[in-house]
Records
---
Amino acid sequence: MTAGFDFWDYVVFIAYAILILGVGLWVSRDKKGHQKNAEDYFLASKSLPWWAIGTSLIAANISAEQFIGMSGSGFALGIAIASYEWMAALTLIIVGKYFLPIFIEKGLYTIPEFVEKRFSTNLKTILAIFWLGLYIFVNLASVLYLGGLAIETIMGVDMMYAIIGLALFAAAYSLYGGLSAVAWTDVIQVVFLVLGGLVTTYLALNTVSGGEGVIAGFSKVWEAAPEKFHMILDETNDNYNNLPGIWVLVGGLWVANLYYWGFNQYIIQRTLAAKSLKESQKGILLAAFLKLVIPLIVVIPGIAAYVMVNDPEIMANLGEVGMLNVPSAAQADKAYPWLLQFLPVGLKGVAFAALAAAVVSSLASMLNSTSTIFTMDIYKQYINTNPTDKATVNVGRISGAVALIIAVIVAPLLGGIDQAFQFIQEYTGIVSPGILAVFMLGLFWKKTTNNAAIWGAIASIPIALALKFLPIPIFEPWMHQMGITTLLTMAIIVILSHLQNKGADDPKGITLSKELFKTSPGFNIGSFVVCIILTVLYALFW
């Protein structure tokens, strides 16, 4: 057992890197006599099959913030953090049935484009600028920071060099090939991601059991730390403010999930690139099933690390390597990188490739969506209203590169954040309620007006900040703040819409019908199975 990489670990990791770059560049090549256009670059020529959509959704979603941050939260507060994953499965089904039919019918490239069709160009521009800022300064920067932290912990490489290396790796194929390169390499990335994650879970549980296997290890973890296996925390729990009991199921987490899975460009973009609506819905269903498995590879290792660190006998058996980078209550995010140190030669390379796959696939997705929003909603709107195909694609590549450079500069400044997953959720939660309110009413309430939506979106920020800093105990859990902010913002939009239109429908209101939301028997059966599995999981870990 060694702390560093062995020759075969490097071989495995280099083989992974060559495979991803090779596939990415191969699918990116221009067909003879065909100039890549906006649909090719930003929507993969609308040719993605369901299995590519489902795996790409997971690859875009699962990043360092899950592997590192969610394992850290598993170490600190236990299985309750899995609510983000398991409730996401149900959210994906809702998005597939009720949101996608509208988005695909309107032939969208970007989520801000929907805002323009439903409301106005002004609101579209406001939200496009907001998303660009969020993707660059929060999403891209945090993924780079957490990926850099993992490489620094595992390999001893200076964080700045690690961040630059990850950025260049993601840029090498995603900026050139666009969404097609991102989506097809994601299929491979998910294989590494799941395989490497399962290897780490096996190692952690097998170590806890003293070599007696995974089942024995899980039993010992459950016995040693029963407090870590409650999905619904009570008010006496130190982590109640992060996951406020039953309100996780019926309150603010729905705001985070519906915003993220329904109105987030780098997630929804691959569903817009489907061959058809049914193909897109099948992809969504695959992603929902995969979401049920994710806690096994990102949360359970964190809980196992907690048991290992607090068991003197296990720590003694780990030797000197066990004393390196030990996670603690104050540095819970070290849990996953710490576990990787104990993997045998070769498998350490597989697990590290999984972590790199999670980071790089998310970076590539965020870069592609950032460049899509800038090109389609800013450049084509205000700079060049009639660009050639070549100019459109080149602007997409250049804007993605600029965004990446800014994120590389910002990433090291995020040092010192613990439980980064919770941190990202909390601060994204200041802005997501207003956007969710605008979209939900814009989609499903025909009376919503443009002016009401603009004022609602603007008002949501001071409301969220007021709830965050007011010394009122009921507002202390930030999920409560998200839920209340959403309801207040919706109330403002409804009141202003009534005052403006005197109860009449807005001219741009969307006409809905039962036929629009009709789904196939396969989608319905799959959705029912997901709901049954979720019910069993919550009953088991309540």
Note: The chain has 24 helices and no strands.
---
Amino acid sequence: MSSTFDTTVDPAYVTARPVNPAGLPTAYSHGGRLTAEGSSVDPILVEIVQGTLASVEMEVETAIGRTSRSPMIRDAHDFRAGIHDRELRKLTGRSYSALVHPIVRDFPIEEMREGDVFFHNDVYESEGGIGHLPDLCVTVPVFHEGEVVAFVQAFGHHDDIGGAVPGSMPSNATTVYEEGLAVPPIKLWDAGVPNRSALRIMTRNSRMPDSLAADLDAECSACLMGARRLGELFERYGREAIETSFDAILDATTETYRREILSKIPDGTYVWEDYAEHDGVDEPQLHTQRITLTKVSDAPADPEMGRPAGPRLIIDFTGTSAQAKGPINHCGDYVGGNFLKKWLAPILRNLADTPERMAELDVNEGIVPLIEMRFPEKGTLLTPIHPGPTNARTFVILRLLGVLAGVVAKAVDGKMPADQETIRYTGVYGKDLEGNDYLMREVLGGGSGGRYYADGEDTIHVVPDSRNLPTEFTESRFPFIVERLGLAQDSGGAGEFRGGLGYEKHIRMLKDAHFMSIADRSILACWGVRGGKAGMPFQVVIDPGGPDEREVDALADAEEIKAGQLVRIRTTGGGGWGDPLAREPESVVRDVVWGKVSAEAALRDYGVVLTGSTDAGDLGFDADATVAERGGRAAWSRDDDAFFDRGPGYSSLADGAAFADVDRI
């Protein structure tokens, strides 16, 4: 086995940005191989190492989930763990994670000691790994024979880190200073000794100091435990064997995506765009996120930028709108877009040969050499200038998942899913029945898009492994009753393959309170593709059917709710795939029986003439009448109609236009 260690630094991360916004140098080692190219490795050991990494990552997350205190971490599971090598490359691929780059930038590896725990949440000093201040990140170095050999990291969305409103996500913020306490990389534990002063500063700035302290303790302890586990792996097999296995794991990912995924995209250049609809400050408008995708099969090697010869995807964000006044900006243009590459790459897995194969494909640092990103100048939604606000940056980075899916769909004749659900935060806060302050906030999912071979999934969550808060838990802890939690009928976009359904949740308040919401897709909808229709948008109504009935804006910080009033939340449905007139009538009948589609929508959207009734148990369809009904309607035409359907809300923001120029093939 070779004993040569190649510590070549990827020059892209040295020359791309001489200093960060804080004036700190960014010429730190990153992205190089740990061992020489072609080093021999035992394939069985590679499997053992890969399985151990996944096991340690899951053990860290399990420990955090079982010992944390806040509902967002413990119950909603809005946190992630990740394992990185000493070249800062992400080794695990079950989920996305933050970056180690800002830690190594500010604290040289040579000066780290066992028991150190580093902390940061500063968006602009995170090198793109942290999107908003409630995401707190802890990083622990792994040691072997006195030297740093890897890192264990966890970051999660916490209840409150200060700022203008409970939850630290003010919808009308115009600077980061309104969003809470920003902490640049610091040493939170020094050789096993916690920095009590730093902890006290953070908890003093939080409205939920006890849960914040408990969550941080859980994350630090879990990552320290994970570091010990990885240290044992190095002790058992030796550094050389483990680091050769690390390189082999990432090389395998690179080769798999090159062979199985990039090969499915024809060479050429494709353009598409989608939009956030509001930023909390200006009136609703189209905040454009544009991708120009170029696929090249025989790109030459670019050693100066660390890119090998062969297939390459070039993602150019030129045409993205200017930085918003409100908090929907995302700092994406750091270290060559390293975070965004790994964030967006899971979309490419939809090109796998089968859904089963798709589920097997991890996204780790191995995809980074296959993607080149080009960013516009500073001052756009993806290249904001400090102190631009960012707390609702999900409106941009989640939309980018859909933009990439859409532009790839144009390249592969629609063989990509229609648009998926978008994340939203909803919640209530006030005084509980004992007069104590409380904050209940959750991330409700929605429907995923229909696929060329199957309907979309209902009520999925974009954040991997996250979930809605259990009714039994919330009713026992907060002053309200959950009267309904189910599927929002007709919310999925019509199509040959229907979009998945969103949630419908009814909350009855027992005390006066305030409702909060950070959500988009309340005007625009999840788009349908290749004749499929858009899903239903997000909607919140207070006191539906009552004297004070009113629809709440999707960006709300303190909407008053009276005791006894109901809050009805409906989340987005996924877009449909394919012409609804091509859907099997039997599938429509089944959906009506299941309550996913109404009888009215069966006729209106699918042209299916029903017979019988669900009450009598004899619901069916009239075959001749259905053929006649569908025959009187125009079928979708690739040549004459738009490839994407954005729903009726688009025209209200686009001066009456039914679709954008880029929506045609």
Note: Residues 498 and 576 are 5 Å apart (CA to CA).
